[in-house]
Design goal:
Blueprint lengths: L4 E7 L6 H17 L8 E6 L6 H11 L3 E6 L5 H13 L4 E4 L10 H10 L4 E6 L7 H16 L8 E8 H7 L9 H8 L3 E6 L13 H15 L2 H29 L7 H34 L6 E4 L5
Parallel strand pairs: 1-2, 1-4, 2-3, 5-7
Antiparallel strand pairs: 3-8, 4-6, 5-6
């Protein structure tokens, strides 16, 4: 029996790009069906993440034009990760496998063919991995590579050069649903699911229309969330650094006492201020990192819903 595939696409204020890329996803679904790889009941599921433009109207119109299009709309903007999870959980009830992809056309949709082949060969998770970063600016390329290396150093098990372009089987989605974190970082959670996996390389293209929804500020926030959601290593580094500073302080105290007994002390305002500023900076930085974790705990213990679905097209009801 051919598997039912859902392509899950989170969207936020994408009225410019949706009319361009939606037909491409539909063509891919039809091609895969003609090739005998997927069922005719496969669908393209759009997740409207509280868009303030005509995105939901376009999704509704698409669903009326062709039954392969369907969509859900969240009650408010919840962020890319929550919107993606909402789509995956919605799809998990109806599909054998789901592929998550952005709607901007940058991820090569031809890689879906290879993902399906890997799934049919027995893989529960197939990661889409960028083969190069030629389309990135020098700054973005450098910061991205630094981010992946930093995450690895922090002990987070993430796939290098992989974003959120991936295939997950219904079995893998069921296990992913058991992760109840409010602070979502799916790139780190999915590898924790386990099961047999593989990867497919692809080249990323330029955005087909519209503007990027991930400026530098959001990327930095996303990186901080990723590190603090998956690893406690920053706190351990603070502990180690604090221990080193404490040892140096003990050495300094011994040196000052010995100097006092030898009557070679000199009043030094600059050195005193420098030491105070250094220790003050270390303390504030440490409190900031610890505060980040306390904030995460605060959000987790409240256990608020990660998303609320407001509307659905007829196909998803």
């Amino acid at each position: 029996m051919k598997p039912v595939l859902y392509i899950v696409i989170p969207v936020f204020n994408e009225q410019e790009v949706l009319p361009v890329t939606a037909p491409l996803f539909l063509q891919k679904i039809n091609d895969l069906y003609i090739d005998g790889k997927i069922s005719e009941h496969s669908r393209i599921l759009f997740v409207n993440d509280g868009s303030r433009d005509n995105t939901w109207d376009i999704i509704t119109e698409l669903s009326q034009i062709d039954e392969h299009y369907c969509g859900i709309s969240l009650s408010r903007n919840r962020g890319h990760q929550n919107a993606l999870l909402a789509g995956l959980m919605e799809a998990s009830q109806k599909c054998d496998a789901a592929i998550s992809v952005d709607c901007d056309g940058q991820d090569d949709i031809d890689a879906i063919d290879k993902m399906i082949d890997e799934y049919l060969s027995g893989c529960d998770i197939v990661y889409g991995v960028r083969s190069d970063r030629k389309t990135d600016t020098g700054f973005k390329r450098g910061t991205a590579q630094f981010f992946y290396k930093l995450m690895k150093a922090m002990g987070a098990d993430i796939v290098y050069n992989h974003a959120d372009y991936r295939l997950m089987s219904a079995r893998a989605l069921k296990e992913l649903s058991k992760f109840k974190e409010v602070n979502l970082f799916l790139r780190g959670l999915v590898p924790m699911v386990g099961f047999k996996y593989s990867s497919v390389e692809y080249s990323r293209k330029e955005r087909m229309a519209g503007k990027s929804k991930y400026p530098l500020k959001k990327m930095l926030s996303f990186a901080i969330d990723g590190i603090t959601s998956l690893s406690v290593k920053p706190i351990r580094l603070i502990t180690a650094f604090g221990f080193i500073v404490a040892l140096l302080s003990i050495v300094g105290i011994i040196w000052s006492v010995v100097s006092a007994f030898m009557n070679i002390t000199v009043a030094g305002w600059a050195s005193t201020v420098s030491i105070i500023c250094f220790l003050g900076g270390v303390q504030l930085l440490s409190l900031g990192v610890i505060g980040e974790y306390i904030g995460k705990i605060y959000l987790e213990v409240k256990a608020r819903p990660r998303y609320i679905i407001d509307k659905k097209t007829d196909e998803t009801k």
